[in-house]
Amino acid sequence: MLYKFPLTSGNVTRFFIVFNLVLLLALGFMVQNSVNAWLTDKRYAMADMARDIQKRIDAYRFVTWQIYENLSTSAAGTPPASNLQETRLRPDVYYLEKTRRKTEALIFGSHDSSTLDMSMRMSSYLDTLWGAETPTWSMYFLNGQDNSLIMISTLPLKDMTTRYKENAISSLVEARRAEMLQQANALDERESFSPLRHLAFQNDHYFTLRTTFNQPGHLATVVAFDLPINDLIPLNMPVENFQLRQDATLNNNASSNQDDVETTQVALVNHDIEIAAALPSTSLQLVYRVPLLRLLLDSAHNLMWPLLINLVLFLLSLSGMLLLRQQSLRPSENQSAELDSLRVLNQEIVASLPVGLLVYDFASNRTLLSNKIAEHLLPHLNLQKIINMSDQHQGVLQATINNEVYEIRHARSVLSPHTQLFMMRDQDRELLVNKKLQKAQQVLDRNHQMRQQLLHHLGHALNQPLEKIVSQLVHLSQRENDESVLDILYESQSLARLVDDIVLLNRLEAHDWSPDASVFNLQELLDEIALESLPLLRRKGLSLVVNNHQPNDEVRFGDRRALRKVLTTLMHYALITTRWGKITLEVKTAEQHPDRLYIELVDTGAGLTIDELANVDFPFLGDTSQDRYGQASGMAFFLCKQLCKQMGGSLEIVAKADIGTRYNIQLPLTLEEKHEDDQEKILEGITALVEIAVEDVHKIVCRHLENWGARCLTPDERISGQDHDVQITDDPSKLSGWALLLAEDEPGHHALNDQQYRVNFNLSNALLDALLALIEKQLSHDVMEDDTEDDAGTALLSGGYFQLFTETVPDDVKRLYTESAISDYASLAQTAHRLKGVFAMLNLTPGKQLCEALEHHIKVCDDSNIKNTTSNIDAYVNQLLQQGNQ
Question: Where in the sequence is Phosphohistidine found (predicted)?
Answer without folding.
Answer: 833
